[in-house]
Structure formats: C-alpha cells, structure tokens
C-alpha cells in the first residue's frame, strides 16, 4: 500500500497561542490583594480526592504542607482523604450536616452545583479575581471554576482525552501519520483491524470502549463541532446534528465498519489495548504515557497523540479545582491554602505524582511537561479543548449519558433517539 502523508497541526502554533496568554510569574492562585502571613491564622480542614495512597500522602504531608507552614506558621491543616468515587457523597453529607470542609478539591463540572447551593465562597470577595486568573490559565480553564459571573474555584490539574495511534501498526498498514479527518479515521481503522479466519476480533482499529462512554462521546461531540449545552446552560444541545453525527460515527465504527466489538475492551482492563497492541488507535487519557512506561516502555516511542479532527479539533478536559467553603471560620487561612496548592511548585508536584496535566500555562516549560509527550501535547492544545458540565444540575444528570451512548453502540436505539431521550431527561432536571 502506498504510504500516505498528511498535514499535522504543528505544536508550535498551539504553543504560540498559549504563550500569547501571558506567562506571568505566579506566586499563587491569581491574587489581586496579597495576604500578610503574620495576620493569617486558624485551624482549617482540607478534603482532597488527590494525593491518595501512601505516595500521595507522603508528598502532601512530608513535602508540601511543611513548606506551607514555613510561610503561614499560624495555620494548621487537617486533611481528609477520599476518592473521586466517594467525593460527591462526602460533599453532600458535609452540606447536610453543616460541617463543610474549609478547602475542598472537586472536579470540573462540580463547581456549578455546589455554588448554586450557596456552599462555596466567592473568591472575588477573598481577593482573587477572574482577570488575574486569566493571566495564568486559558479562559476555558478559568471558566470551569466560575458560575453566575463569579469565581468559585482555582484549577490545580487537568485530565484530558484525545486520540492516540500506535504508529508502528499504522506504518505496517502504509500510513505515516494519524488521521486528520473522520474519513481518514474510518479508513485507517478498517485497514488496521485484524480478525481471525473465523471472524474473531484480534486487534481493534479504533478503541472507544476502554474509556468511559460519556467521555468518549463528548470527545467525539467536540470533534463534530458540537457542545453539550447552549451558551447560557439552559438547555442541552448534544442532541443536535453534531451530537447525532458523533454518536452515529461511534455506532458505525462498531456496527458498520466492524473496527471494534462490544466487550473486546472495557474500562476494567488492567493494560490499555494501545499498550499491548490489541488496538491500533483509540481515545485515551493523558496518563497513558505513564501507564506505558510502567507496563512496557519499549512501546512508548510508537505512541502518537492526535486531535480527533472532524468539523473541529476534538479534545476533552476535566480536572481538579480548589474551592473555599462560604461559611469557613478562617477564610483567609483557607484562601492561603488554596493559593498554595495552586501555586507552580505545589501544582507541579501534584501533577507529576499523578501523571496529569498542569493547568498553569507557565509550567509548559517545566522538565516534567517537556519529558512527557502526552502532557506536553495536552498543554499545547488547551486552546481547543472543551470541558463538560455547565448547568447546576449537571452532577445529577451526567450519569445518564453513558447508558444512552451504550444503547446506540449496542444497536438498541438509533443515535438520534438515544440523544433525544437523554436530552429530555436532562431538560427535566434543569427545569426542576
């Protein structure tokens, strides 16, 4: 087969876009009114779903918090560790009991729900402004911490999803670069799919099933040029033509083009199929880089990240944000900890420990980012990444997305009906 060359979006263009945002030296957070450490005191609590396990706790308690205490000797921090799986229940219980932690780390898409319940402090009233934050982060990242025109959270780390190709497999099939369109994605996926003589799938051409179905769909939706909600978050738009096309493509890849079979991979797989060669391409999390180094470092040079290009370049981002309780008895101490955790040194350490993407643009030049091609790729393309979430009810309804997507992939429903039914559920929740 003739080798086919393609134009690829250069990293330098994206980097210039990021640099244009201003790489301002960051003391912490995005402060307009600096704190006086001698005047900040109090005993505060921190609820965190990151820094989990012994390595994470050692990092926080033995390395980071001692540095915080050097700057703020009159503050004491009590840490409550949890997981993202248990975080919503923990936060909800805290709100009901009235014992809300002073500083809470939560995910992108969570801020709106808790801010609408009057749980979170307006950081503008504590001296942090949206404009100063946007000197250090892309607008989309800052927007993830805002609700109703006010800033409630400061980002610490990001989780991204984008395309990844096994270039050794693609080159064997005659392709020298990842796909640059949906049409090429289908073509290469078909060319790299391998089945036995009996028809049993041995290698998927494009894997979507080892990733959460909601996140896979949203990545493809963004690639189609669509959005989850309208501009004022009053109604869903994922069931528009873009969403139907995105879910239609996902369904066709399985049911028409036969590049993956239901059950061939799953979110429970111990080894990602891109690592062990059971997939030629797929949608993956940025921590696939660190997973590969741990599982089989000989594969690392064959992994090539790419934006899934439809009507727009598709990349998904979530992440972890730091918030302060509205009724904190030591709001300035809480603000000090929030600023510290989001400062370059602490944020870089937290991201490196988890293999995640730093939110601060200035960390693009750090050794950690420059040595991790997936994290570097994500940071260089944050200007086109989109997030989930929007309305205050998002946390209540996002669990309905995966079953709707799966119904279309299983052929139990058409993409249009699956998304229209889902949109009806979401609209009802918004209107309640």
Précis, in short:
With 432 residues, this protein is of the alpha+beta class.
Task: Characterize the structure shown.
With 432 residues, this protein is of the alpha+beta class. The protein has 19 helices and 15 strands. The protein has helices spanning 11-19, 53-71, 84-97, 111-116, 130-133, 139-143, 167-172, 182-192, 213-223, 241-255, 273-276, 288-295, 331-341, 344-354, 367-371, 373-380, 394-397, 401-409, 415-431, and strands spanning 42-48, 75-81, 103-107, 146-147, 150-151, 153-166, 194-195, 201-203, 281-285, 303-306, 308-309, 313-314, 316-324, 357-358, 386-387. Helix 2 packs antiparallel against helix 14 (344-354). The longest helix is centred in the first third of the chain and has 19 residues, at 53-71. Residues 1-29 have low confidence and may be disordered.
């Amino acid at each position: 087969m003739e080798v086919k060359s393609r134009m690829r979006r250069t990293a330098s263009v994206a980097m210039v876009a990021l640099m244009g945002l201003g790489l301002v030296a960051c003391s912490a957070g995005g402060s307009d009114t600096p704190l006086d450490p001698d005047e900040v005191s109090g005993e505060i609590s921190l609820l965190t779903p990151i820094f989990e396990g012994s390595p994470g706790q050692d990092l926080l308690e033995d390395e980071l918090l001692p540095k915080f205490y050097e700057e703020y000797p009159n503050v004491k921090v009590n840490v409550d560790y949890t997981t993202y799986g248990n975080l919503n229940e923990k936060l909800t219980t805290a709100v009901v009991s009235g014992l809300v932690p002073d500083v809470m780390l939560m995910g992108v898409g969570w801020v709106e729900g808790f801010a609408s319940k009057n749980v979170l402090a307006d950081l503008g009233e504590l001296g942090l402004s949206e404009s100063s934050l946007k000197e250090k982060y892309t607008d989309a990242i800052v927007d993830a911490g805002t609700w109703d025109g006010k800033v409630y959270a400061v980002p610490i780390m990001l989780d991204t999803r984008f395309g990844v190709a096994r270039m050794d497999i693609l080159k064997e099939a005659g392709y020298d670069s990842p796909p640059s369109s949906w049409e090429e994605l289908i073509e290469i996926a078909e060319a790299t799919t391998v089945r036995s003589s009996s028809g049993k799938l041995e290698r998927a051409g494009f894997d979507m099933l080892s990733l959460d179905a909601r996140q896979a769909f949203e990545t493809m939706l963004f690639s189609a040029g669509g959005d989850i909600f309208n501009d004022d978050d009053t109604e869903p738009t994922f069931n528009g033509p873009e969403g139907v096309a995105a879910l239609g493509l996902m369904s066709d890849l399985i049911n028409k083009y036969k590049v993956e079979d239901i059950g061939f991979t799953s979110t429970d797989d111990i080894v990602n199929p891109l690592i062990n060669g059971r997939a030629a391409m797929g949608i993956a999390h940025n921590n696939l880089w660190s997973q590969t180094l741990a599982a089989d470092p000989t594969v690392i040079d064959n992994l090539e990240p790419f934006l899934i290009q439809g009507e727009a370049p598709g990349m998904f981002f979530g992440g972890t944000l730091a918030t302060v309780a509205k009724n904190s008895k030591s709001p300035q101490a809480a603000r000090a900890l929030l600023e510290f955790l989001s400062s370059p040194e602490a944020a870089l350490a937290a991201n490196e420990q988890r293999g995640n993407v730093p939110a601060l643009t200035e960390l693009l030049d750090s050794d950690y980012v420059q040595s991790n091609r997936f994290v570097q790729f994500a940071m260089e393309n944050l200007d086109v990444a989109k997030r989930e979430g929007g309305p205050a009810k998002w946390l209540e309804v996002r669990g309905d997305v995966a079953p709707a997507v799966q119904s279309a992939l299983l052929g139990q429903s058409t993409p249009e009906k699956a998304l229209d039914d889902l949109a009806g559920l979401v609209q009802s929740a918004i209107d309640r």
